[in-house]
Write a structure and sequence with these properties.
Layout: H1 3-10, H2 13-19, E1 21-24, H3 39-43, E2 49-51, H4 56-67, E3 76-79, H5 92-96, H6 101-117, E4 122-123, H7 147-162, E5 175-179, H8 198-205, H9 207-214, E6 219-222, E7 226-227, E8 230-231, H10 236-246, E9 252-253, H11 262-266, H12 272-282, E10 287-288, H13 292-302, H14 308-324, H15 341-358, E11 360-364, E12 377-381, H16 407-414, E13 419-423, H17 436-444, E14 448-454, H18 475-489, E15 492-498, H19 506-511, E16 514-517, H20 525-534, E17 597-605, E18 608-609, E19 614-623, E20 629-638, E21 650-659, E22 664-672, E23 678-679, E24 685-686, E25 690-697, E26 706-712
Parallel strand pairs: 1-2, 1-10, 2-3, 3-4, 5-6, 6-9, 12-13, 12-14, 14-15, 15-16, 18-26
Antiparallel strand pairs: 7-8, 11-16, 17-19, 19-22, 20-21, 20-25, 23-24, 25-26
Bound molecules: alpha-D-glucopyranose.
Length: about 725
């Protein structure tokens, strides 16, 4: 008889329901309910899991209570390590823009090491929700708008977090969330109902979860939301039938915070007993913060709504995860020893490197960037210039508010011989304009003006939808006053945007010489920004999400189907607006560097390919710019004629090349022909013979892409 069999045979019902319960230890409140003190329940073995607790001593204190309980089952302790633990990396939306699976994995590995050293064995990451609606604050936490990209991020993050063996002391269990289709909440409004087609669910929102499962993710968290009227926490077809049945996922499903109790508010459960029954029958193993399993399942069992086997199956999965993590063998292993200083230093260096590579250069005219060496006086203006806490972005885990390097500190360190004159000018969100005049005057004597504008860290992430996506407060008034004066004085103006989403600010993109989207760069923000502004790092990020010109364009994304009347400016009766172009301000994949790349000679071989074959696409790229830089080359596909209408562009691959000025090189992108499968009218995967266009270039705009084609043959 295995250890788990013995334990299940010995456990009382309250002990079993305790293993199916997770409560917040209150060190970080991430939901509407704060638990009291769980110590007594842990001692009694009637709470088996905690979240929002970290620190070796705190974890050891709680773990000792559990280990000394009647059956000595160790606690599973988790935290939202979304983009770093104490050392913060750029927010996931920013990091997606690296288009570099090694980097995605490396930062997750670094975060897992730091979190495990703090006693954690689980994180509620990666967040894999595809989002095409920047009103939704949680776009910041995710992989952007593209399912192909999201699936590759999923694999890299699961590998990084879980390492090669889950029982390794530096491994933590990942939790793919929020399953699924949370991104298309109605009107971009947080927690709102979701209603998208089954095709959209399977084509757009499930691929990243299927990839995470294939990569061996330990846990899955259902979304708060309903999908066409069925709350994900009770979604039998997608949890029990698709996730567990079709994909064979036998890991742990953890509800979101209080989500089981919220089935009552959804209107599908009469009370906690009914809610607990629905969740358990759908396959949810752990109840986070609703106490629905502890309070509701005894009655559900008595009424025959659930069986002892249902409960034992959930307990088994939880105990199996704890065994896989090595918690039974050594519950104190994570947090037992402090990390070597060299590892901490290396992690900060990695955070700086990844932050520098996440900076998205949206505009750079009049050679505003990089800054000319020897600039005598630089005016730094705006509410995000000296705001270290805001650099963390949403979900800062254990990242301390004063820890990050501010832009001001970073620029001073990088430009010791430059006078960096700073003025806040206004707040992020208030109506205070009293500092604008001083800021304008301060900028007067400078050769270059750097504006630091954007959102507060808490204006994206959870419970942070925005209906207006411009700069909050009086930042526009500040920027316009400074820019207008700078133009008169012939000064260069550089705007750095800090946000968890694309910002709608056509006036800013129009009026400044350069715009750098820094997103929220994390602990090394100031140094990374200085690296880019001074040219020590050439920006290379590409946007993983479309930037709207106006909120009215949302949802906006590149991979749209053509419709029967695709946009034709010459034809009134075609798909377009009267008052805005259809095109985004900046498309998916857009991003400038300090080079300038020209494409030529695209070719695809073989001309005819079977499903079992591979396609190679080659393209010549030349750097005609003044500085060495890295270019990411995208490969899109368009199946012009198929049994269902296909998007006009679909990302199928990318390649990278680093070139010095004047240098030319060949980029080769390999694509297995099975990548051209799609879901037929019956939503079953098909491989249809016929021509497929292959489009290669810098971003998702057909006018910028070189076109080859291949013939798929059966
Ligand atoms: C929050 C979030 C979820 C997070 C969980 C625990 O409400 O929806 O992403 O992992 O609760 O903090």
């Amino acid at each position: 008889m295995s250890r788990i069999d013995r334990l299940i045979a010995a456990m009382t019902l309250p002990e079993k329901l305790g293993q199916m319960t997770m409560v917040s230890a209150g060190y970080a409140v991430t939901g509407p309910v704060v638990a009291g003190d769980a110590r007594d329940a842990i001692k009694a073995g009637t709470i088996g899991n905690l979240l929002n607790l970290y620190g070796p001593d705190r974890v050891r204190e709680m773990q000792e209570l559990a280990v000394n309980s009647r059956l000595g089952i160790p606690l599973l302790i988790g935290l939202d390590v979304i983009h770093g633990h104490r050392t913060l990396f750029p927010i996931p939306l920013a990091e997606a823009g690296l288009f570099d699976a090694e980097a995605w994995e490396e930062s997750a590995r670094a975060a897992a090491c730091e979190a495990a050293a703090d006693g954690l064995a689980l994180t509620f990451a990666p967040m894999l929700d595809v989002s095409r609606d920047p009103r939704w604050g949680r776009s910041a936490e995710g992989p952007g708008e593209d399912p192909w990209l999201a699936a590759r991020i999923a694999v890299a993050k699961v590998r990084g977090l879980q390492g090669k063996r889950l029982d390794d002391g530096s491994a933590i269990a990942g939790c793919a969330k929020h399953y699924c289709a949370y991104g298309p909440v109605t009107a971009g409004r947080e927690y709102a109902s979701v209603d998208v087609s089954e095709r959209t669910v399977h084509e757009i929102h499930l691929p990243s979860f299927a990839a995470a499962i294939a990569a061996g993710v330990s846990c899955v968290m259902p979304a708060f939301t309903d999908l066409a009227g069925i709350p994900m926490t009770a979604h039998v077809p997608l949890l029990r039938d698709w996730l567990r049945g079709h994909l064979g996922f036998d890991g742990v499903i953890i509800s979101d915070y209080n989500a089981i109790a919220e089935l009552i508010r959804h209107g599908v459960a009469a009370d906690l007993t009914h809610a607990a029954t629905l969740a358990l029958k759908a396959g949810v193993d752990i109840d986070m913060m609703a106490n629905a399993y502890r309070d509701g399942l005894p009655q559900a069992l008595a009424r025959g709504w659930v069986t002892g086997e249902d409960i034992d199956a959930a307990v088994r999965r939880v105990l199996t995860l704890k065994e896989q993590l090595g918690l039974f063998n050594d519950p104190y292993r994570r947090g037992a020893s402090a990390e070597p200083e060299a590892q901490r230093i290396a992690r900060r260096a990695l955070a700086r490197s990844i932050a520098g590579r996440s900076m998205l250069l949206l505009k750079n005219e009049s050679s505003a960037l990089p800054l000319t060496p020897g600039v005598r006086r630089l005016a730094l203006v705006g509410p995000l210039a000296d705001a270290p806490g805001e650099m963390r972005g949403p979900w800062w885990a254990a990242g301390e508010e004063r820890d990050p390097v501010s832009v001001l500190a970073g620029l001073k360190a990088a430009l010791p011989n430059t006078e960096v004159a700073y003025s806040r000018g206004t707040d992020i969100e208030s109506d205070d304009e009293s500092g604008i005049d001083e800021a304008v005057l301060l900028a007067d004597q400078a050769q270059v003006v750097v504006l630091c504008l954007g959102e507060r860290a808490t204006m994206s992430g959870e419970a942070a939808s925005r209906a207006h996506l411009g700069l909050p407060g009086r930042q526009r008034k500040l920027a316009e006053a400074v820019i207008q004066r700078a133009r008169v004085r012939g000064q260069r103006t550089v705007a750095i945007l800090f946000s968890g989403r694309p910002i709608v600010a056509p006036w800013l993109f129009e009026s400044t010489d350069a715009v750098l989207a820094a997103w929220f760069p994390g602990s090394e923000a100031g140094h990374a920004i200085a690296d880019v502004l001074t040219g020590r790092v050439s920006p290379s990020a590409r946007s993983p999400i479309s930037w709207p010109r106006a909120e009215g364009q949302i949802p906006i994304y590149y991979a749209e189907r053509p419709g029967g009347r695709p946009e034709n400016p010459a034809d009134h009766f075609t798909s377009k607006y009267l008052d805005e172009p259809n095109s985004p301000q900046f498309p998916f994949g857009y991003g400038l560097s300090y080079g300038r790349f020209v494409y030529s000679s695209v070719a695809a071989t073989p001309e005819r390919v079977r499903e079992s074959g591979d396609v190679e696409v080659r393209v010549e790229v030349r750097n005609e710019g003044p500085r060495e830089a890295e270019e990411t080359v995208f490969l899109f596909a368009h199946d012009r004629l198929a049994s269902v209408a296909r998007p006009t562009l679909e990302l199928k691959g990318f390649g990278k090349i680093r070139l010095r000025p004047g240098e030319q090189g060949t980029v080769r992108i390999e694509v297995p022909a099975r990548e051209f499968r799609f879901l037929g009218a019956d939503l079953k995967s098909v491989f249809e013979p016929g021509e497929v266009e292959l489009l290669v270039g810098p971003y998702a705009d057909r006018s910028r892409l070189l076109i080859a084609s291949i013939m798929l043959v059966s």
